[in-house]
Design goal:
alpha/beta, binds 5'-O-[(L-methionyl)-sulphamoyl]adenosine
Length: about 550
């Protein structure tokens, strides 16, 4: 009894793994870039669960709903602000459901629990004397919701005359003079440098270096304005005890990561034990807010900074930055193969450099890798023509040894046995594309093995039966291992393949892919059944070029 109680309490007290996406502005409908941030975070959390089945994952996402640009967007849509926010926030939820972003917590900055957290955090900063009032004048970008120092601006000539834009984002700036509350960011330079010292705090390292360089080179490291006049930004959380001022939307938004853990309710926080967050996934455009401002705010409020930021680069479309004015914004649900989009996003992009999207690329990758290399191999190895009894036959030690001596079987077996470790390394360093590449390489070898062994000929000869069993066993085992590894990338497609192979749900963890059946000591093989019936994992896509052209013209 005592033992079980102790066990129970250790389960209760186990720290969760806490991962977040940025919360998304509701000023426009979600696009491919937004989805990308979310699927990167989702793949990380799925890999965590795969390797650490007992782990309690908190995976938060949500929407960022305050500020000038939301005010403007709602006015343009001619909708009351809250209704407008509800609609777009719901679009994000629908998007995440469709693309298998398995969040556990959805947070909106207009929720009461969050506003309470923001006010509490503000008071804490005031109490610690990190906030003061001052006159502020500078260039403000509504689009980035940030002041931009003069040195980071340039002039641009447009049809309406000369304008100022931000060098970093290219967004238009407005000269703004107002009384604001300021945050003593300048007090945190050394603390931030310390926090950024150990390798791996920001991944990939390129982005950590960027922040280190920014802190090292910029002698100019001023305090920042953390409020706006309520007369201008009325759709925001008011500064406690000063109705005239609204809290800066970035401070408001960043606090969402604490709200999700139950902040400011100490008891909830203790019971969830989620802070500091294990991973914040962010795009490179918002690195400074997460890698400089956020840790400084936290330190000022006596909270630990996050353990790690995973930063990704951007998606361009047909070689250009996605933008409304170029008319090239990709809505994830309107692509020719939504079911393959998640795969392509994770398979193509490296975190460190921008990736380029095109419909042709999506269709080609989906057809060649999902339909042909993976799907077609599964259909053939499970199909009635070669596997009429729908089974996973035993590998017959003698015949397996004989087959394994020949090429290309030898290469396949070698690669398959090394695959889990290689993928583990790549996934652990968030290099999903490298993991998928290794899987596809093994699947190419498996296809070559299958072709070379000519199972359709073995089937015709009575003395070929055992060798046919070996071909089917090795192929189905390859498919089982690859499907387990692909779960963070294509959860439901891998799930369908594992269902087809009748792999029980509790045998789909990482530990179950680490060794192929013939490498498990003392294993006794019995013929196992797989699901009967025709199996098409992924239907090839045939794009009607004329239709695509027409669709583009209408948009
Ligand atoms: N609301 C802020 C984040 C506050 S978090 C406390 C915000 N929202 S956003 O909707 O503009 O961006 C959300 C995420 O989408 C960011 O990580 C951003 O990098 C990502 N992307 C937006 N466009 C993108 C691409 N073209 N490509 C890849 N990701 C991009 O910033």
């Amino acid at each position: 009894m005592r033992l079980s109680l102790r066990l129970l309490s250790s389960v209760v007290q186990k720290r969760p793994f806490y991962i977040t996406t940025p919360i998304f502005y509701v000023n426009a409908a979600p696009h491919l870039g937004h989805l990308y941030t979310a699927v990167v975070a989702d793949a990380i959390q799925r890999f965590e669960k795969l390797t650490n089945p007992d782990c309690n994952v908190i995976f938060s996402t949500g929407t960022d709903e305050h500020g000038t640009k939301i005010q403007q967007a709602a006015a343009q849509a001619n909708l009351p602000l809250q209704n407008y926010c509800n609609n777009i926030s719901q679009e994000y939820r629908d998007l995440f459901d469709e693309f298998e972003v398995g969040y556990t917590d959805y947070i909106r900055t207009t929720e009461e629990r969050h506003k309470r957290a923001v006010r509490h955090f503000w008071k804490k900063l005031v109490k610690q004397d990190y906030i003061y009032k001052a006159k502020y004048a500078g260039w403000y970008s509504v689009n980035d919701e940030a002041f931009v120092p003069e040195s980071h601006t340039r002039e641009e000539i447009t049809k309406d005359g000369k304008i100022k834009v931000s060098v970093e984002s290219g967004h238009q700036l407005e000269w703004t003079e107002e009384t604001n509350y300021m945050f003593r960011l300048s007090a945190f330079k050394t603390h931030l440098q310390e926090w950024l010292k150990p390798d791996g705090v920001i991944q990939p390292s390129k982005f950590q270096k960027q922040l280190q360089d920014f802190l090292a080179s910029d002698a100019y490291f001023p305090d920042i304005s953390v409020s706006r006049p309520s007369s201008r930004v009325h759709w925001a959380v008011r500064v406690p005890d000063d109705e005239e001022q609204s809290i800066y939307v970035w401070l408001d938004a960043l606090i969402n990561y604490l709200t999700v853990c139950g902040y400011p309710d100490e008891e909830q926080l203790m019971s969830r034990r989620a802070w500091p967050a294990d991973v914040h996934v962010v795009g490179k455009d918002i690195l400074k807010f997460h890698g400089i401002y956020w840790p400084a705010f936290l330190m000022a409020a006596r909270w630990q900074p996050p353990r790690r930021l995973v930063c990704h680069s951007h998606w361009t479309v047909d070689g250009s930055k996605m933008s409304k004015s170029l008319g090239n914004v990709v809505a994830p649900r309107s692509v020719p193969a939504p079911a393959a989009l998640r795969y392509v996003l994770l398979r193509e992009a490296t975190l460190a450099d921008d990736a380029n999207y095109s419909e042709t690329k999506l269709v080609n990758i989906a057809n060649s890798e999902l339909a042909d290399t993976l799907g077609n191999l599964a259909s053939r190895a499970c199909g009635a023509a070669l596997n009429p009894r729908h089974e996973l036959p035993p590998p017959h030690a003698h015949e397996l040894r004989d087959v394994a001596r020949r090429e290309p079987a030898a290469r396949l077996l070698r690669a398959l046995e090394r695959l889990p470790e290689i993928c583990h390394q790549h996934y652990s360093s968030y290099q999903f594309y490298k993991g998928v590449d290794a899987v596809i390489h093994v699947l190419h070898l498996a296809n070559l093995f299958f072709e070379t062994m000519k199972p359709w000929e073995l089937k015709k000869k009575p003395e070929g039966q055992k060798e046919l069993d070996v071909v089917l066993h090795v192929t189905l085992e390859t498919l089982r291992i690859c499907s387990i590894i692909l779960q963070p990338i294509i959860p439901s497609l891998s799930g369908r393949l594992l269902d087809k192979l009748q792999v029980p749900k509790d045998c789909r963890y990482w530990q179950h892919c680490e060794r192929p059946s013939w490498r498990i000591k003392g294993a006794i093989f019995e013929t196992k059944n797989i699901q009967s019936g025709k199996f098409v994992l992924f239907q090839r896509i045939y794009v009607d070029k004329k239709n695509v052209q027409k669709k583009k013209a209408i948009v």
